[in-house]
Predict the 3D structure of the following.
Amino acid sequence: MSANYEVRGNVAVITLDNPPVNGLGHETRKGITDGLEKALDDAAIKAVVVTGAGKAFSGGADIREFGSPKAIAEPNLLSVILALEASAKPVVAAIHSVCMGGGLELALGCHYRVAQAGTQIALPEVKLGLVPGAGGTQRLPRVLGLENALNMIVSGEPVASELLAKAPGQKLFDKLVDADVLDAAIALAQEKADVRPLPLVRNLKVEHPNAQGYLQFARNTVGAMSKNFPAPLKCIDAVEASMTRRFDDGMRLEREFFMGLMFTPESKALRHAFMAERATTKIPDVPADTPVREIRKVAVIGAGTMGGGISMNFLNAGIPVVILEMKQEALDRGIATIRKNYEAQVKKGKLKQDKYEQRMSLLGTTLNYADLKDADLVIEAVFEDLGVKEQVFKTLDEVMKPGAILASNTSTLDVDKIASFTKRPQDVIGMHFFSPANVMKLLEVIRGEQTAKDVLATVMQLGKKIRKTCVVSGVCDGFIGNRMIEQYSRQAGFLLDEGATPEQVDKAIEKFGFAMGPFRMGDLAGNDVGWYIRKRRYQEKPDMRYSKTADLLCEMGRFGQKTGAGWYDYVPGKRDAIPSPVVNDMIEKHRKALGVSPRKISDEEIVQRLVFALVNEGAKIVDEGIALRASDIDMVYLTGYGFPLHRGGPMNYADTVGLFNVVQAMKRFAKNPQDDASFWQPAPLLAKLAAEGKTFS
Ligand code: NAI
């Protein structure tokens, strides 16, 4: 049973007890209705209090039940709420800590609500592509008014109970207390024991002086902001029904929307991402109770683009940082950039002046390795050159205290090789941040051959503390993300060779949902970066084919926005990408040199070749054990590469298309003379799943 029953005087207390957040799984729901029945049958009981054990009232539906028959088995949440509402004895909800989703809907079915200050109140269903499904859209407007309720339902964001308690005319809480919410609820239950009729939220009316005008405004704003997602607009429709329809009709409409959205690819993608995010922390041979090392102080080597951003993450989390550079000028430049970033945040009102000063006071600088000896973790972010890294790691091995973690932010070099420069390879790990490192959510955690389990566990935990999505990757060239993007870029190049323009490729993939196509992206990041990597990589793999257009572009000095010209032309001071006749001419000449007569390429082919290239390489990465699971790859792409969220990541997208269809498309691409037939051989895992009619998930 995951709800407890106890008697306090003449009040029955039903306590949800389903850690960690009292999710409303089947047993908990049954526990509530059983408890209620017992209370109703006992003549000595005058009233009932419902509360939650531990650190939540209730976080809502039990995600472990998602998609299983248990999720809808009776008593389902709607039945539980109806039973509470229909109770002949008053029911009081004692709300504390977290009250979200189904938890809030449950509380709204009770006759009275007492809340503790500091409780996070939310209906977050929209974040999973859904509308609240157990009366939230009908009952919340009745207690909070149209505007407050709509904001909460459309955003899904939590609001603190003490703020809601101040909303004019609110009927959400009958009482707000600073502590001892259960005692306060029991007292209220006793006070109301004989008061009849029992107040029901369903009997309240939603009023607004200009509802139609307000709803129109909301539809315009929400429609523009959530183009790829149907749920937010459905939330508005459902909330509108709380005004315009009878309660039970509104409930039916809400249910209809809920069921309809449940099967949309957008909601499936969001639910996939939600579960995938949670799965990233699970490492089969490193259990959750693996001991971790304490990280009280961090050192960063190199105050360049990455070093500065990396440092900010720790300063933001209140962890002291010391940055080491070779020259004072480099340090000064790095610190000035950090200041500039913080000052921009202060100017925008996103950071308070005192917080900014507090963060800067945690930052130290040095030119001397001896000053790093008390750091618990050092992250190297120097030039991407194995010789330089060797020097740095040899020195770190000499100066760092025993047990300190030595991390590298390398994006392309072999972490095992770097570890071998030290006499403590078990303490070496990769922490691959993405640029800008203080903004991007993704942190690829590179587990070396010899990385100790507690080192991995420590870095994963620390990554969470600095609010990153941490994905474990084994050692390989490019790790998960960059190894895949290389195949995506190769396809983008082949498309130019075959007849597409950079603009056409970018537009097609942007329409699919990427924030930026590969060529605009190249211009932003600097085309010389890829040039440098290709020079090294294709020396190692001389038979790997790729379009030479990218090299020709760099030979023209067109490195991108920083040189004022790249795949596109740029007007000084502006970021608009203007199609370039010079570049198109270069591409045409290159085609002629290859003897290719250009063909018209459909947007569909462009999208499939770019995305399925990611999928095939991704399948190899899972097969080789570089990624722990396909959903980890989706998280890398959603949080680090701007893959459209409503598609749920490349592997989830492939599942949606159907792996059989993906394989068929690859077979077609392999026949294309300009493409790389060997690349399009489906990865063994992909071929196997497709043949068995299965999916990556
Ligand atoms: P950067 O050139 O902006 O900064 C490197 C800094 O390291 C410079 O300030 C330089 O003075 C300093 N440095 C060089 N040798 C040093 C030494 N021996 N001791 C102390 N300081 C030294 O380079 P960036 O872009 O910050 O890259 C650093 C590392 O991060 C590289 O390994 C790179 O591959 C990796 N990385 C870069 C990303 C990017 O988008 N820029 C993304 C992810 C990783």
In short: The chain is about 50% helix and 10% strand. The chain has a mean pLDDT of 96.
